[in-house]
Amino acid sequence: MARKPIHDDVTDAELEVGPPRRSAAGLPSLTETIPLALSRMGPGRAAATLANLNQKDGFDCMSCAWPDPPDRKVAEFCENGAKAVTWEAEPLRIDSDFWAAHPVSELRERTEYWLGQQGRLVEPVYKPAGTDHYHPVTWDDAFGIIARELNALDSPDQATFYTSGRTSNEAAFAYQLFVRAFGTNNLPDCSNMCHESTGAAMAQTIGVGKSAVTYTDFAKADLIIIMGQNPGTCHPRMLTALEEAKLAGAQIVAVNPLPEAGLINFKNPQRPRGLIGHGTDLADQFLQIRLAGDMALLQALSKRVLAAEAAAPGTVLDHAFLEEHCEGLEALTAHLAQVDDDEVRAATGLADAEIDELAARYLAADRVIITWAMGLTQHKKAVATIREIINLLLLRGNIGKPGAGPSPIRGHSNVQGDRTMGIWEKMPPAFLDALHREFGFDPPRHPGLDAVQSIQALRDGKVRAFVALGGNLVSAISDTAVAEAALCGARLSVSISTKLNRSHAFVGEEALILPTLGRTEIDLQASGPQFVSVEDTVCAVHPSAGRVEPVSRDALSEVAIVSRLARAVLGPDHAVDWAGFERDYDTVREHIGHVCAGCEDYNVRIRQPGGFMLAHPPRDERRFPTATGKAVLTVNELETIRVPEGRLLLQSVRSHDQFNTTMYGLNDRYRGIHKGRHVLFVNPEDLADLGLVDGEHVDVHSEADDGVDRALRGLRIVSYPTARGCVATYFPEANVLVPLESTAEVSNTPASKSVVVRLEPAAPAVS
Ligand SMILES: Nc1nc2c(c(=O)[nH]1)N[C@H]1C(S)=C(S)[C@@H](COP(=O)(O)OP(=O)(O)OC[C@H]3O[C@@H](n4cnc5c(=O)[nH]c(N)nc54)[C@H](O)[C@@H]3O)O[C@H]1N2
Ligand SMILES: Nc1nc2c(c(=O)[nH]1)N[C@H]1C(S)=C(S)[C@@H](COP(=O)(O)OP(=O)(O)OC[C@H]3O[C@@H](n4cnc5c(=O)[nH]c(N)nc54)[C@H](O)[C@@H]3O)O[C@H]1N2
Ligand code: SF4
Ligand SMILES: [Mo]
User: Fold this and answer.
1) Could you report the per-residue pLDDT of 59-107, keeping only the tens digit for each?
2) 37-41, 107-111, 314-318, 632-636: which has the minimum mean pLDDT?
3) Ligand 3 atom with least separation from CA of 76
4) Whether residue 325 sits in one domain with residue 297
C-alpha cells in the first residue's frame, strides 16, 4: 500500500482566493504532475503508466475524449491525464474491514473527495436488505443475487442499466447486448446529461451526431470559434492543436461568460518558449456572452451573413453547396430577417460592434470550425442553439471540406464509442435489426428510459432495479435530493466501479458493488493478455492495453463482469457465447464488426497502427444521411430567459482538480481558488447592485415553477470577471439547485447551466 488513506474530510476552512490566471498549462502543470504521480504510485508504476499513456501500443487516456495527434511525442499527455492515471493506478486498496467500520449511513455523510481517496475497490461487496453495511461476498454469490432479483421482476422494463463513458467498446457492446437480451432498452448513459443535445441537433440536420472534423483539420482552418467550452481545464491538449492552428495562421474566437485561462493564452510545455516565455495568445476575439445567449448570437451572425449576400448577391453564400446539398434556405432567410436586434442585445449582453466583428471574421474565412461543449448543451434551448451552429456553417459550405466543420468536443474518453456500440435508450431500427440477424433473438423495439426518465421511474416506483456500468449517477444528475430518494427506493442496486462514490451510498434495499479493472491495468484472460478499443471525439478508433499489475487479483475486467452477469441472468444455455466473450475479446470484436455501423472488419482494422477512422458521410463525401438526403437549414424560434429583477442566472462548471464527480484535489488554479470548492463567482457590478461584497457568504436558492425551495448553502462570494447577471459555482454540488424536470427541449438533458437563482445572506460557517 503506497500511503495511508485520508480519513479526515477537508472542509473549506482554509479556502484561499487569489486572482484568476490569464494563461494555461506550461511549467506549473508539469511541476505538479510528475511529483504527484511518483509519490502516489511509486517510481515503477509511475513510469509504466505515464510512459505508455496515449502511446500507440499503450493505453488510451481515460480522462477526456480529445484525440491523439498523428505524430506522438514522448510525453503525450496533460496534467489532467496524469492525475486521472494516478487516481486509478495508485496501489491503495479498500480493505475488507473497511466495510464493517463504515456503515452506508456514514458513507452518505462523506464528500466525494473523501470517498475517492479511500483507494480502489478490490472485492465484490453486498449489502443485504434491512442492513446498513456492505460485506465481502464471492463473485458467484454476487452474480447469483443479481440474477435472482432481476429475474424476479414483473417485466425487464422494471430495471434500468446506466453506463458512464469510460467503458470500453468491448464492454459496452457486451453490456447493451446483455440488456437487450434481458428484454429492455433502458440504457441511460452519461451522454444523456452531456452531448445528447448535440446528437439530437446534428442527427436531424446533417444526419450524423459526431464531429465532422479530424485532428489535422484544426491546423487547416482560417477561423476556429470555441463556444461554451473550457479547453484549458477540460481538454488541455486541445490547446496544443489550437496553438498549431494559430501558428499556421488561424484566427481563434472564444465565446464564453468566463474569460477562461486557456482560451486567452497558452504556455506549451512541449516548447522551450512555452516553458519560460509569455506563451501564445490564443483568442483574437473574446465575446463575453451572457449564459444561454448563444442562440441569439448565432442567429445574429447568420442574419449578417444573409445581409451581406443581399448586398452583394452571389458573392457570400456557397450557392453551389446550398443548391446541391441543402434544403430550407428560403424559410431560414425569411425567419432570420425578423430577428430582433434588441432581443439579441438583451440575450447576449454583447455590443453590436462585437457581433459585427465576429461576422466580419466569419465572412473573411474560407474554412471555419466551430467547437462546443457543455456551455451549449445544458440549456433549455440547447438543441435549437446547436442547430443554429449548423445553419451558420452550412450557409458558407463550411462542412465536408478540409479545415471546416462542426466539432462537438466530447467529455468522457469513450462516451462516443459507447454510443457507436449501442449504448442508447433509442437505438435506430437498423441497429436492432442487425442485433437480431447476428444473435437470433428479438431485441425489444420500444424506446427505453434516459437518465432523467430513469430517476423519475425509480422515484415513481416503476423501475425497481438499477445497474450501473461505471459513473456516479446520484451526484451527476440534477435535483440531488430527488435522485437520492429515487435510488434509495430501488429494490436492487448494482455498481460496477473502480472507486467508491456517493452512488454506492444511495442504494436500494439490496446493493452490490462489483470491483473492476481500470484502463491502466493488464487484463489477462484465458486466451492471454487482452486489449480493448475506444473512439475519441473525432471518430478515431484505436486500441488500449493496460501496462501495470492490477491493484487486486480479485477485481475482474468489465467484459468479464458483464459476461458472467449475462450468463447468470440469462442462463447457461443462452444463444450468445458469453464465456467466449470473456476468454478472448476478439470474439466480441467479431460481432461488433457485424453489428455496428462503420465497424466492418473490426478485428483487422483495430490492429492497424494507430487504429482507424470511422466513416462520416458529411465529412468525407458531403453526403447527408438525413430523412431527405439533404442537410437541413432549420428555423428555430428565439426564446430568451427573462431573469427577474434582483435575480441571477447560475451555471455549474468543472474545477481544474476534478473529473466530473471525482475530486483529485480542492484547487481550481486557473480561477485562483485553492483548498475549497464552496464558492460563487459573481460579477463585481452585480455585487454592488445587490449590496454584497467579495468574501461574504450566501445561500443560493433556485427559483423553480414547482414551488420547491432548493438551496445550496454557505457559498463564499468571489468577485470575478464573469458576464453581468451570470454567476457560476461548481458541479456536482450545484445539482441540488436544478429541478429534475428542468431539461433541454428534445434532448432531455438537465438544464444545469442556466438556473435562475436568488442570493440570501448566510452564516459564514461552512461544513
Ligand atoms: N479536468 C476535467 N476535464 C474534463 C472533465 C472534468 O470534470 N474535469 N469532464 C469531462 C466531461 S464529461 C465533459 S462533458 C467535458 C466538459 O467540458 P466543458 O464543457 O468545457 O466543461 P464545463 O466546466 O462544464 O465548462 C463549460 C464552459 O462553458 C461556459 N459556458 C457555460 N454556459 C455557457 C453559455 O451559455 N454560453 C457559452 N458560450 N458558454 C457557456 C463556461 O463558462 C465554461 O467555460 O470535459 C471533460 N474533461
Ligand atoms: N450540474 C451539472 N451536472 C452535470 C454536468 C454539469 O456540467 N453540471 N455535467 C454532466 C456530464 S457532461 C457528465 S458526462 C456527467 C458525468 O456523470 P458520470 O459519468 O456518471 O460520473 P463520473 O464522475 O464521470 O463517474 C465517476 C465514477 O466512475 C467510476 N469509474 C471510474 N473509472 C472507471 C472504469 O474504468 N470503469 C468503471 N466501471 N467505473 C469507473 C468510479 O467509481 C468513479 O467514482 O455529469 C453530468 N452532470
Ligand atoms: S487532453 Fe484529455 S485525453 Fe489528452 S491527456 Fe489530457 S486529459 Fe487525457
Ligand atoms: Mo460529459
Assistant:
1) 999 999 999 988 877 677 888 999 999 999 999 999 999 999 999 999 9
2) 37-41
3) 5
4) yes
Q: At what angle do helices 341-348 and 352-364 cross, to 10 degrees?
A: 100
Protein residue with its CA nearest to atom 18 in ligand 1? 229
pLDDT tens across 646-695, in order? 999 999 999 999 999 999 999 999 999 999 999 999 999 999 999 999 99
Which one of 230, 416, 419, 664 would you pick to mutate in the ligand 1 pocket, going by the greatest count of ligand atoms within 8 A of its CB? 230
Q: Please indicate, yes or no, whether residues 189 and 200 belong to a single structural domain of this protein.
A: no
| 451 and 405 assigned to the same domain | no
Q: What is the mean pLDDT of residues 610-622?
A: 97
Answer whether 479 contacts ligand 2 (Cβ < 6 A). no
Cα dihedral 289, 292, 295, 297 in deg (nearest 10): -10
Reported as a single tens digit per residue, the pLDDT across 314-326 is 999 999 999 999 9
Looking at the fold, whether 53 and 107 belong to one and the same domain comes out as no
Question: Following DSSP, what letter does each residue of 664-691 receive, concatenated?
Answer: S-S-BGGGTEES---EEEE-HHHHHHHT
- Using an 8 Å Cβ cutoff, are 232 and 25 in contact? yes
**Better-predicted residue by pLDDT, 280 or 311:** 311
* Residue with CA nearest ligand 2 atom 25: 471
> Which CATH number characterizes residue 666's domain?
2.40.40.20
Cell numbers 460592434 correspond to what residue? 353
Per-residue b or e along 330-369, where b marks 16 or more CB atoms closer than 10 Å to that residue's CB? eebbebbeeeeeeebbebbbbeeebbebbbebbbebebbb
- 544 close to 531: Cβ distance less than 8 angstroms: yes
Say if 12 falls within a structural domain.
no
Same domain, 385 and 348: yes
Same domain, 113 and 262: no
**How many domains, in total, are found in the chain?**
4
Closest Cα to residue 422, out of 439, 405, 399?
Answer: 439
Ligand 3 pocket check: which of 78, 79, 233 to mutate, most ligand atoms within 8 Å of Cβ? 78
pLDDT at 766: 45
- Cell 434582483 sits at which residue? 646
Ligand 4 centroid, distance to 476 Cα (angstroms): 10
Q: Residue 14 falls within a domain, yes or no?
A: no
> What pLDDT band is residue 108 in, cutting at 50, 70 and 90?
very high
Query: Cα 688 to chain center, whole Å?
Result: 35
Mean per-residue pLDDT over the chain, rounded: 94
Range(s) of the domain holding residue 332? 196-409
In a domain, residue 630? The reply is: no
DSSP secondary structure code for residue 64 in this structure: B
SS3 letters across 320-348: HHHHHHEECHHHHHHHHHCCCHHHHHHHH
Please tell me whether residues 205 and 270 are part of one structural domain: yes
